[in-house]
Write a structure and sequence with these properties.
Distance between the termini: 50 Å
Largest sheet: 6 strands, mixed
Helix content: 10-25%
Number of strands: 33
Radius of gyration: 29 Å
Strand order of the largest sheet: 1-10-3-7-6-5
CATH class of the largest domain: Mainly Beta
């Protein structure tokens, strides 16, 4: 009965069921307290891969050359991170002990007509909880991660222990491209450093025009589903040459509210940057003025929200106060950003021409029976390939269960200090807390 409660028994049952389903490629977490049962064929080769170079191999009934009798034949190059097996005798078994990273891993080899052709052993991730915080990484440590990615092929070959906890994905076979008309961002490779809860991307920015394209080097952001993660560090020149390409590296660490992101490399990613326009067109609204928009104090920004909230009353009784305000209603054509258990619905937009600002009236709807918490200062507007962060909002940070909450937020000048001429709004984003924040 002790066997039934042991990790050994549980693992053997799991692998046996996978083999019965004829899954030739399998993966398992590294654990030196279990026995790995590996089905091996007489007319097929089985390869077992470790995260790093194997230190030693010992076996019973296993031969590494044709002159020595054995039930299984093993091939291994000293210093490599894998070995290959083939059964020599039908209906036979043997065992193998592998020494790796100062631990011993035990394998039970079984001749089978349904062999596993590849077994990939992976480092287990540390357990995480909703309230876990992301590791605090210094700028030097973040830059070191970029350097490690740049040298990854060499490190993987000669110092595999240094990158043993790094997951890697290449997009060579299936390119991941974010196309923004006159330029595109192509993801080439993605790396996940589990201990640092950091993803690093190698990307290529392609300029499709004959003119220089300027962007903010510190503005890289990763969009995963409905969430946007700003960069923690990047290696980018801030310019894409005419009809040329530029290779950049950027990293994303944790979440914007300080939690762990635990983002899997199996996700579909898109990349955003803040482009800098070198020339600002003269618009009818500016009536010939090409100077920068006014700098708005916090009190002035707050007054814009008050003007938007009181707009119907002011328009009726004090029309001169809102004479320069342009109203855009969304009643006939709702603009809704749906995030499964909540949604953000744009109700109205107000363009305050003199201040070069936009104010939005939105309704946040909670579709669940529990409260939803979010960062009150995290409202952002997505317009095509760009994300514009709020200048001010009157948000409470809470949506009550099965309820709605009306919020006003404003966006003043563009990130590069230009006039705000936004149109074709794609949606509104907020940074939601993963769980109810603890009291301060």
């Amino acid at each position: 009965m002790k066997l039934l409660n042991s990790p050994l028994f549980l693992f053997v049952v799991g692998v046996g069921s996978l083999a019965a389903d004829n899954k030739a490629i399998q993966s398992a977490l590294l654990d030196d307290r279990v026995v790995y049962t590996v089905p091996v064929g007489t007319n097929r080769v089985t390869t077992v891969s470790f995260p790093g170079a194997i230190a030693a191999i010992d076996g019973a009934g296993v031969s590494m050359d044709s002159k020595t009798a054995g039930q299984f034949q093993l091939a291994h190059t000293r210093g490599s991170a894998f070995f290959s097996l083939r059964a020599l005798v039908p209906k036979t078994t043997a065992n193998l002990n592998i020494r790796w990273n100062n631990r011993t891993y035990v394998f039970e080899l079984v001749e089978s007509a349904a062999p596993v052709l590849s077994l990939i052993l992976e480092m287990p991730r540390p357990p995480t909880h909703p309230g876990d915080t992301a590791p605090e990484l210094t700028p030097a440590k973040l830059l070191a991660l970029l350097d490690k990615v740049k040298a990854f092929p060499l490190l993987k070959q000669q110092h595999s222990d240094v990158v043993s906890d790094v997951e890697f994905v290449t997009y060579a076979a299936k390119p991941s491209v974010s196309d923004f008309n006159d330029y595109e961002i192509r993801l080439e490779e993605a790396y996940r450093f589990n201990t640092a809860d950091t993803l690093v991307f190698r990307s290529v920015l392609k300029n499709k025009t004959a003119e220089l394209i300027h962007y903010r080097p510190g503005s890289f952001a990763l969009r995963v589903g409905n969430r946007v993660y700003p960069q923690s560090v990047s290696d980018a020149p801030g310019v894409i040459p005419p009809n040329g390409e530029s290779t950049v590296y950027f990293a994303v660490t944790g979440t914007p509210d300080g939690g762990r992101n635990e983002i899997s490399l199996k996700n579909n990613f898109s990349v955003l940057i803040e482009r800098i326009t070198t020339e600002k067109p003269v618009t009818t609204r500016e009536q010939g003025s090409v100077g920068p928009p006014p700098e708005l104090s916090p009190a002035r920004l707050r007054s814009l929200l008050d003007k938007a909230e009181a707009f119907p009353l002011l328009q009726r009784h004090h029309l001169d106060v809102v004479a320069d305000v342009e109203l855009v209603p969304y009643a006939e054509k709702p603009s809704v950003s749906d995030f499964n258990d909540y949604e953000i619905r744009l109700e109205e937009a107000y363009r305050l021409k003199a201040e070069g600002a936009l104010v939005f009236r939105t309704v946040l709807k909670n579709k669940t029976g529990g409260p939803i918490h979010y960062r009150p200062d995290s409202f952002a507007l997505r317009v095509g390939d760009r994300v514009y962060r709020q200048s001010v909002s009157d948000a409470s940070g809470l949506i009550l269960p099965n309820s709605e909450s009306t919020v006003y937020f404003a966006i003043a000048a563009t990130p590069d200090g230009g006039w705000n001429e936004l149109s074709n709004i794609s949606g509104v984003l907020i940074e939601r807390y993963p769980s109810e924040p603890s009291p301060q």
